[in-house]
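User: Here's a structure from my thesis project, written as structure tokens. My advisor, Dr. K., wants to see whether a designed sequence matches the one we expressed. Can you design one independently, without my sequence as a hint?
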């Protein structure tokens, strides 16, 4: 493909991504994968170039663009060499017309910028949310040690005890260390969230929002496969992906539990008041993960945010019923909005005055309310609020 043809292909993909964002349809990475499967003429270099153009254009636009072409023209304002490719050549974009629509630059839609600012995220810290995310891995302590892996992979050491950072774009899943279950892809901040749980051998630990089990595997390693580890989630498809991952990692998960929304305690009746620790990695807006999913900021609106905060409050209540006296609840969101993070924790403590906050002692982060906040700008991780709450004996 010519450079101009790559730009035109990226514009078409951006149109699909914009439409999907408006309709709450498939995410950008899925749309890209579908397009690449359907257009085999695009070679590996073409695919890399098109993907790069698409994500650069997404990051260049604050509010959702009117069209993919308007988004690409916005990117062209910071990279004038792109505008030279709007030359009308075969398979390339049509020439630029005078006064043509250009998408608005910025961090996010204005209402969301205001919410971030009210939560202490603005200027340089907000801009860092749109930088390209690093490639972090967690060394699986059940099978390997970090020093050996660091030397073998020539990786950077992270603050998380088992964390390493590889060059962006490294083909991790092709590495023998990955195939053999010695390493897992996991952001350094996510690893620290697992550290905050303090899971120990012999304990009963519940991962209440386990998803595909990234944090569950980290908890299993921390427990040295000794004790009772429960992985629960309402998403059957994601939960089913845990078993093969656990087998590859050599991780023992006592039970996976499929939950019915709003009836979670029924499925978890056997563990009421028996858990030493419950991890609530709650569904959230994902504002802390924009480096990896920049189009997510186009999908969020007030109504969606309100639904998420209601769900988070509900999950905190469920978790509280599972924790035994003297046990702990660790609440985590990959959001930097206070209404999902520090505000939720404050509301829980106000409604449960016998519980107390016990902020986790982490090597990175700063206090936000009674929790610890990690941000890309200050900590080089995805954005998180991590809070640890203790139930009275």
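Assistant: Designed independently from the structure alone:
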């Amino acid at each position: 493909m010519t450079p101009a043809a790559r730009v035109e292909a990226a514009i078409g993909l951006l149109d699909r991504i914009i439409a999907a964002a408006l309709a709450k349809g498939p995410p950008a990475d899925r749309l890209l994968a579908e397009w690449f499967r359907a257009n085999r003429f695009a070679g590996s270099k073409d695919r890399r170039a098109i993907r790069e153009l698409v994500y650069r254009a997404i990051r260049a636009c604050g509010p959702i663009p009117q069209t993919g072409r308007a988004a690409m023209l916005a990117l062209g304002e910071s990279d004038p060499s792109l505008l030279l490719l709007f030359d009308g050549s075969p398979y390339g974009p049509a020439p630029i017309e005078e006064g043509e629509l250009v998408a608005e630059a910025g961090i996010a839609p204005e209402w969301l910028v205001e919410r971030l600012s009210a939560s202490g995220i603005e200027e340089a810290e907000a801009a860092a949310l749109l930088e390209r995310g690093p490639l972090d891995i967690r060394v699986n302590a059940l099978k390997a040690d970090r020093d050996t892996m660091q030397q073998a992979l020539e990786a950077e050491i992270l603050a998380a005890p088992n964390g390493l950072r590889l060059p962006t774009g490294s083909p991790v899943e092709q590495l023998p260390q990955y195939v053999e279950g010695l390493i897992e892809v996991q952001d350094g901040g996510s690893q620290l969230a697992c550290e905050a749980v303090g899971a120990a051998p012999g304990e009963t630990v519940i991962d209440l929002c386990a998803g595909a089990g990234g944090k569950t595997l980290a908890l299993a390693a921390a427990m040295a496969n000794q004790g009772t580890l429960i992985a629960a989630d309402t998403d059957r498809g994601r939960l089913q992906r845990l078993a093969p991952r656990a087998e590859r990692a050599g991780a023992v998960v006592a039970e996976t539990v499929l939950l019915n929304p709003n009836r979670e305690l029924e499925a978890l009746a056997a563990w009421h008041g028996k858990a030493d620790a419950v991890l609530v990695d709650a569904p959230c807006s994902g504002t802390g993960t924009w480096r990896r999913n920049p189009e997510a900021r186009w999908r969020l609106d007030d109504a969606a945010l309100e639904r998420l905060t209601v769900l988070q409050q509900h999950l905190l209540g469920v978790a509280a019923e599972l924790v035994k006296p003297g046990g702990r609840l660790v609440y985590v969101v990959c959001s930097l909005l206070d209404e999902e993070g520090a505000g939720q924790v404050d509301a829980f403590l106000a409604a449960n005055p016998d519980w107390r906050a016990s902020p986790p002692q982490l090597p990175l982060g700063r206090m936000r309310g009674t929790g610890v906040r990690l941000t890309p700008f200050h900590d080089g991780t995805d954005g998180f609020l991590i809070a640890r709450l203790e139930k009275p004996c």
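When you compare it with your expressed construct, this may help: The CA atoms of residues 365 and 374 lie 5 Å apart.
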